[in-house]
Design brief:
This is C2H2-type domain-containing protein. Belongs to the UFD1 family. Residues 1-62 are annotated as: Disordered. Residues 90-181, 182-255 form the Ubiquitin fusion degradation protein UFD1 N-terminal subdomain domain. The protein has 567 residues and is of the alpha+beta class. It has six domains: 1-70; 79-124 and 134-178, Barwin-like endoglucanases (Beta Barrel), CATH 2.40.40.50; 185-254, Vcp-like ATPase, Chain A, domain 2, CATH 3.10.330.10; 270-387, Jelly Rolls (Sandwich); 424-476, no CATH class; 504-564, no CATH class. 31% of the residues lie in helices and 31% in strands. It has 13 helices and 33 strands. The strands form eleven sheets. Strands 2-4-3-6-1-5 form a six-stranded mixed β-sheet. Strand 24 (433-435) and strand 25 form a beta hairpin. The longest helix has 71 residues, at 2-72. The chain starts with a helix and ends with a helix.
């Protein structure tokens, strides 16, 4: 009996312990579930809170960006991403799609005057992530709204300033409408040497900037002068880092270039040459080395009166190379094979005497181009003012005058010889000398030198036999002008100085150095010897100083004579 009671009690105690353990386990599970639910609820609330903060920040950034766009555009909001395409054209005016014109018109941008835009590159920072704006940017104007949808066409100036380092496979840009102040000051610096050598280089820069609507700091401006190209970097602008250059007067400061003259054969640079000093250098075949020297007024008087000559001398090292000399007077800065005033093509060392066509135009700056005709040539170049020896000329004149009293003409050399020595002279002359039989030549030569004296079959010019190959190449090899005309050297010189549409002239109306163009369409302008550019430029009107009437510039002189009787 006691045994059964004990078993029943133990069983009851065991069941009570098991129930207590199950209750504790259930309570623990419930506690853990509540903790997990609370953790998940807190994480969810934190995620929602972060999303709300991100949305608030994004909205704030969008509002701030919109505010900046509105401030930059003075109430006009226009900011789009386009694919950049390149087109050949001058200046900094881009082409946008027609939809941009409608949007800008709706925003009222057309009523605010010229439109300006800020262009910046965009690129992927990490594949699959959002786009990020790059630091490279520039400003521009707009030319027309004819680009295809989704793209913007950039001229060469804008393209090179925006994609300085590399061009991505798909160049994407952000185009943003902005308002720019009118520029008052600009400081530029040539990237290479030689720009300051151009005559009136500020006017050349002004002509190039007429195709621009804006300027931005750190941009590079390309200036073309004939076939030459110069690059100038914009260092400083006022009153802002990007300014408008339309209808405003900008004070321009041009700093000197940092380029040294160690590589002047690779660029058009005028090395100063002092009269009387010797300059030694080397020129490679097919390349030029340029120099400049000045003739002062006191020297020009002697040259104009014939008491002195300007003598350019080049001594070439006899090492197989050969050079040619081309000389011009400014404003022709860089003489070439077919644009020059004086030249010498003799083989070896040579002396070139400059005789200005107009005695009143001796004073000024002259340019010398040493051209490597064959091989690499070492040379020594010098310019000197040589006095004409008047005493020797007088002695020769008096001597010749005394001979003319009693003289006979030698039948061989055609010289006047004293009659008492004529038989002896003729015997010696017939035995050793021979006259060139070529029509119009008649040069008397030693018989051993006669075989080396030849005439060109095309032009009849006399030269030595060893110089004939060079003569044919220099004077009779066809040359192609940049305008497309093919002529020989002398005809090419005449063509490029008088009829070539790409020749540079100083316009009589705007004063700029420009391409002349072809013949004007108006026959009256042709009779007045105007170029095509002058005919178009002279068609602009200006008020007459006397009556205030608007008159075309090219008709102003006729107006003053016909209406106001002014000579």
């Amino acid at each position: 009996m006691d045994f059964e009671l004990r078993q029943a009690r133990e069983k009851l105690e065991r069941e009570q312990r098991e129930r207590m353990q199950r209750a504790k386990a259930k309570a623990e599970r419930e506690r853990r579930a509540k903790a997990e639910a609370a953790r998940r609820r807190e994480a969810l609330e934190a995620s929602h809170r972060e999303r709300r903060l991100d949305a608030a920040r994004a909205q704030e950034e969008a509002d701030q960006k919109m505010e900046e766009v509105m401030q930059l555009g003075k109430g006009v909001s226009f900011s789009h991403m386009f694919e950049a395409l390149r087109y050949d054209g001058p200046g900094d005016k881009i082409k946008l799609p027609p939809s941009s014109f409608k949007e800008l018109s709706d925003e009222g941008a057309l009523d605010k005057g010229p439109m300006y835009f800020r262009l910046s590159k965009v690129r992927d920072t990490v594949p699959g992530t959002s786009m990020e704006q790059d630091a490279e940017a520039t400003c521009c104007g707009v030319l027309e709204f004819t680009a295809r949808e989704g793209s913007a066409e950039l001229p060469l100036h804008v393209w090179n300033n925006l994609f300085r380092s590399d061009t991505p496979e798909v160049p994407l840009i952000e185009v943003k409408y902005i308002s720019l102040p009118k520029g008052t000051y600009a400081k530029l610096k040539p990237e290479g040497a030689g720009f300051s050598d151009l005559p009136n280089h500020r006017a050349v820069l002004e002509t190039a900037l007429r195709n621009h609507a804006t300027l931005s700091e750190n941009d590079t401006v390309v200036v073309n002068y004939g076939q030459l190209e110069y690059k100038l970097k914009v260092l400083e602008l006022k009153p802002a880092s990007s300014v408008s250059v339309l209808e405003t007067d900008v004070e321009v400061d041009i700093e000197g270039s940092d380029s040294v003259l160690d590589n002047e054969e690779d660029q058009h640079v005028l090395v100063p040459l002092v009269i009387g000093n010797i300059e030694s250098s080397v020129v490679e075949e097919g390349k030029f080395r340029y120099y400049k020297f000045s003739v002062e007024e006191n020297v020009s008087e002697k040259v104009a009166s014939g008491r002195a000559n300007i003598e350019v001398k080049i001594d070439t090292d006899a090492s197989g190379g050969d050079t040619d000399i081309y000389v011009s007077r400014h404003p022709l800065v860089f003489p070439t094979q077919h644009r020059h005033e004086w030249s010498s093509h003799e083989m070896g060392s040579k002396v070139l005497i400059l005789k200005p066509r107009d005695a009143t135009l001796v004073t000024g700056v002259y340019s010398i181009g040493v051209y490597g005709f064959k091989g690499t040539s070492k040379y020594q170049l010098s310019v000197a003012i040589k006095d004409v020896n008047s005493q020797r000329i007088g002695e020769y004149a008096s001597a010749s005058g005394s001979v003319d009293v009693d003289s006979v003409l030698c039948k061989n050399c055609k010289r006047h010889i004293a009659s008492r020595s004529a038989p002896l002279h003729e015997a010696y002359c017939m035995r050793h000398n021979v006259a060139c039989p070529h029509d119009g030549c008649g040069v008397v030569l030693r018989k051993e030198e006669a075989a080396d004296h030849v005439h060109c079959n095309k032009c009849g010019r006399a030269c030595q036999q060893r110089e004939m190959e060079k003569h044919m190449k220099v004077f009779h090899e066809p040359l192609q002008c940049p305008c497309g005309v093919v002529l020989e050297k002398e005809d090419m010189v005449q063509h490029q100085s008088s009829t070539c549409p790409l020749r540079l002239i100083v316009c009589r109306f705007c004063g700029d150095t420009v391409h002349a163009g072809g013949e004007p369409a108006d026959v009256r302008d042709r009779l007045r010897n105007m170029s095509e550019h002058e005919s178009i430029c002279g068609s602009r009107t200006a008020p007459c100083d006397s009556c205030g009437r608007s008159v075309m510039l090219k008709e102003m002189d006729i107006h003053l004579i016909a209406v106001h009787q002014k000579s």
